[in-house]
Design goal:
162 residues, membrane, 33% strand, ion transport, 9-stranded mixed β-sheet, alpha+beta
Length: 162
């Protein structure tokens, strides 16, 4: 180990001189500009919010101003938006993406989205039942994969509606 340290010691100054030029400075803001849109509706259009909680395949996580820049895929579930006036909105998403930029702006783009308060529990159960039926009768790999996705969305939809 000591011979390794002696062998790299002459090049270490080169790395330390380059380091400041490699590190980028982020322009974090104290507020978070938020946009949330789906194919059927724009829920928020570049407004300031306190916090957003999103479901992702890497685990649900909260977004606050000064969050590290991130790109994530949304899984079926509920996005909760905490507004500056103290209120909050819960919006069900089937899938989509969330982008957190270095200026603290956040964009959620959903394939399908609906306010949780507008969900119908019996209709959600029907969606799940139909998806489960399609999964059990699927004969090709593609049909099985599509039905499995529909079941995942249906389960999340029922959970959100209850």
């Amino acid at each position: 180990m000591a011979s390794f340290v002696r062998s790299i010691r002459p090049v270490m100054p080169m790395f330390s001189r380059r380091l400041p030029s490699v590190v980028a400075k982020r322009n974090y803001a104290d507020e978070m500009a938020f946009t949330f849109a789906a194919a059927n509706q724009v829920f928020y259009d570049n407004v300031s919010v306190k916090q957003v909680d999103v479901p992702s395949f890497s685990g649900s996580f909260g977004i606050l101003p000064k969050h590290v820049p991130t790109l994530a895929v949304l899984k079926p579930g509920v996005v909760t938006v905490y507004e500056n006036d103290g209120g909050s909105k819960k919006i069900f998403v089937s899938s989509g993406t969330v982008t957190i930029n270095d200026d603290s702006s956040v964009q959620v783009l959903a394939e399908e989205a609906c306010l949780v308060e507008h969900l119908d529990v019996s209709a959600a159960r029907d969606v799940l039942s139909k998806a489960q039926s399609e999964l059990s009768s699927a004969s090709t790999d593609q049909a099985k994969a599509e039905a499995a996705i529909a079941v995942e969305v249906g389960e999340a939809l029922v959970k959100a509606a209850e």
